[in-house]
């Protein structure tokens, strides 16, 4: 599914976070949003993913107009078509890693056996196959972030949104988490929209989109 945002604006009181930003992400494409601090990268990611409503502009996911949906419609699209990875893994502390990874499939009412198989396969591929029974507090930050990547991809979403997914990791864990995210998304055909300050992470993307003063366009980027 392609994803596009057109003419997105977002204001917080007197602060203009987005000033008419436009970006299109092709199916399977990995796009890094880069730019100075406060330029609007996270705001853009939030508007594209339905975590925030733009003040004006349009977001299309395939032929679904995200910006026209009510809250229940937004939740349904996010559950089925999107996956999320944040800077700190934000796993549910009361659930084991395997239970955390299974959550998106359970919300979509997937069968129990398929869920168990898919969760085990992903944990294995991420090198944490033996940690499925542990709770988030019992694993390292890098291991928790790998589980967060598994959770974002378990339901084969159209788009994974990742806000500083390696921002809290050392360089070895950054490499592991980043390559897992990109490789697994190739398998599932998911596109990735990621916000990063790390040049190495941005280089792993198919394309970089420069956000400045709440603005970006695909034309500027392709220069
Ligand atoms: N919840 C909020 N309330 C008020 N202002 C906000 C809020 N979120 C963001 N802003 C403001 O909107 C602008 C864009 O912020 P945003 O977080 O999108 O930038 P960013 O490029 O992701 O920054 P960083 O790289 O520092 O994370 C900034 O001026 C910021 O202070």
UniProtKB/TrEMBL annotation:
<dbReference type="Pfam" id="PF00005">
    <property type="entry name" value="ABC_tran"/>
</dbReference>
<keyword id="KW-0813">Transport</keyword>
<dbReference type="InterPro" id="IPR003439">
    <property type="entry name" value="ABC_transporter-like_ATP-bd"/>
</dbReference>
<dbReference type="GO" id="GO:0005886">
    <property type="term" value="C:plasma membrane"/>
</dbReference>
<dbReference type="GO" id="GO:0022857">
    <property type="term" value="F:transmembrane transporter activity"/>
</dbReference>
<dbReference type="GO" id="GO:0005524">
    <property type="term" value="F:ATP binding"/>
</dbReference>
<dbReference type="GO" id="GO:0016887">
    <property type="term" value="F:ATP hydrolysis activity"/>
</dbReference>
<dbReference type="InterPro" id="IPR003593">
    <property type="entry name" value="AAA+_ATPase"/>
</dbReference>
<keyword id="KW-0067">ATP-binding</keyword>
<dbReference type="InterPro" id="IPR015854">
    <property type="entry name" value="ABC_transpr_LolD-like"/>
</dbReference>
<protein>
    <submittedName>
        <fullName>Cytochrome c bioproteinis ATP-binding export protein CcmA</fullName>
    </submittedName>
</protein>
<keyword id="KW-0547">Nucleotide-binding</keyword>
<dbReference type="InterPro" id="IPR017871">
    <property type="entry name" value="ABC_transporter-like_CS"/>
</dbReference>
<dbReference type="InterPro" id="IPR027417">
    <property type="entry name" value="P-loop_NTPase"/>
</dbReference>
<dbReference type="InterPro" id="IPR017911">
    <property type="entry name" value="MacB-like_ATP-bd"/>
</dbReference>
<feature type="domain" description="ABC transporter">
    <location>
        <begin position="3"/>
        <end position="223"/>
    </location>
</feature>
